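To whoever picks this up:

The parser on our side crashed when reading a file containing two proteins. I've narrowed it down to the boundary between the first structure block and the second sequence. Both blocks are reproduced below exactly, byte for byte. First block:
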Amino acid sequence: MKKVLLMVALVMVSVIVYAFNDREENNQGKKEVTGNGEVIVMDKAMFIKDIFDFEKSKEWKYKGTKPAIIDLYADWCGPCRQTAPIMKELAKEYAGKIIIYKVNVDKQKELAALFNATSIPLFVFIPMKGEPQLFRGAADKATYKKAIDEFLLK
């Protein structure tokens, strides 16, 4: 009987945790893109509107007004959870200069496939001109700052 009660309690806690974690994702694509120092949760509609319409064109043409980083992550990914605070800090430090988005690969499978996100975290660095560059895996803040300064803001 104790095992059954324990299992029921674990299921209840899991459902509650999932419900609270899912709230942020329900707001995907609702925030206006301003690059005001926040990491913006992105969905497919926002990607097509603000980044690149891959349904109409096969040739890359960035639609944005500032260089961008897209962080492809998953909630269950340890290295992704380690890099999330770094991305928040960088969004504040580079506010007005770049825009940082995040895409949950479990919820936005089409965007994950677009960038062939077979391992995460995966960062897509998008300059104003030229092709985006992929950066696979977690790194320290200095590494991301160097990529921003030397690739996105050069």
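<<boundary where parser fails>>
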Amino acid sequence: MARRPGRRRGIWAIALLVLGVTLIAGPLAYMFSRFVPVKTFGENMLPTIPVESVLVMEKDRGEVRHGDVVTYDPAEWGYDGPFVGRVVALGGDHIAYATGDRTLTLNGKPLHEPYVRDGDAGAGGVSFAVSVPLGRVFVLGDNRGNSEDSRFHPEHHQGTLPLAAVTGVDSEMHEESPLMVVLGLLMSAGVCLLPLSLGLGIASLVVRRRRPVEVQGPVWGATRVDVP
């Protein structure tokens, strides 16, 4: 039996289509399952994060560390979130500030905070001394003079929030980060494969219509006629 014309092109068209869709959908599914974009509207994280910046927050990272920029749910403070802030103390830490001091102290030692706006760690003039309970965090903004953070809610567990309130951790990803470059290349390859698969599919259909299938061997039911 003769091979159908255009069959090979059709197979390649389907294979490239599946591969192209996979290369596009795979990175997108990975990004949406692991990360979430968050747009900032306030000035509390200046100068680190400009107003209306879009952060790529990692979901369910499993660990929150000192200095992490996080999104969190301020429901315990009576607000709707998410808010963006920086974790300056974890469960078991003692964080403190006294008016007039140049820095905060963490477990009795000066806390180095190069990210604070104008280098003024005590802007806002709020003194505090908090022993953070286990399983909770103490969150501040980098713009201490204009930040609604843990300092202003001492009535709620001394301003601390449960780790469960942390909804994302800044991945610090940007367009030039290695992961973004790799995912971008994979998606670009997938986009390039789609028109190629479409072209092969069209070519396969054209060939099938133009070239009838050749039948080899006897045709059953045909009558032989001898021409004199």
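After patching the parser it read the second block fine. The longest helix spans residues 178-210. The first strand starts at residue 35 and ends at 39.
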